[in-house]
Design goal:
CATH class of the largest domain: Mainly Beta
Strand content: 25-35%
Order of helices and strands: EEEEEEEEEHHH
Number of helices: 3
Largest sheet: 4 strands, antiparallel
Distance between the termini: 37 Å
CATH topology of the largest domain: Immunoglobulin-like
Structural class: mainly beta
């Protein structure tokens, strides 16, 4: 993706944003780009390993809300065109994190935001195959989580 050196957003704040809609064992992320330029968003679930590193991973972001933070590795990139949104549903047991990581204007980056998937609240949530919705290996694992809060997924 080619990104101009600088840009001015066409609309009012927020220039980029991320919204999360939790479901059982998943979060649907909406990546919002209200600028006239493409931006790349990244997400990770449950401490997954990076997919790779940017050539500038050790460089520090010089301005905006993420100032002082290193670019670091990337996980799951989603490119979002100018004045567009994209949705991605991510399966997770514990948490999903997302950020706006690349674009022409560092002032419009969105630092890591955390979203939590829904968890079972009762034994009934685990019954009749409901344990599968929460990504447990079996019904007993799900019920143990409800009873003790211990997660063995």
């Amino acid at each position: 993706m080619t990104i101009p050196a600088s840009a001015t957003a066409s609309q009012s704040q927020p220039y980029t944003d991320i919204q999360g809609n939790p479901g059982p064992g998943e979060v649907t992320l909406t990546f919002i780009n209200n600028t006239n330029f493409p931006y790349a968003f990244d997400h990770r679930a449950d401490g997954e390993s990076p997919a790779g590193t940017f050539p500038f991973s050790d460089d520090t972001i010089g301005q905006g809300p993420c100032e002082g933070r290193k670019w670091g590795p990337y996980y799951n990139i989603t490119n979002v065109g100018p004045n567009s949104t994209e949705q991605v549903t991510v399966e997770a047991a514990h948490k999903v994190e997302a950020q706006a990581v690349l674009g022409p204007e560092q002032n419009y980056y969105t630092c890591w935001k955390t979203f939590y998937p829904e968890q079972p609240d009762s034994k009934n949530d685990c019954k009749r195959g409901g344990w599968k919705d929460y990504h447990f290996k079996n019904q007993g694992q799900c019920i143990r989580y409800v009873n003790t809060g211990k997660d063995s997924r």
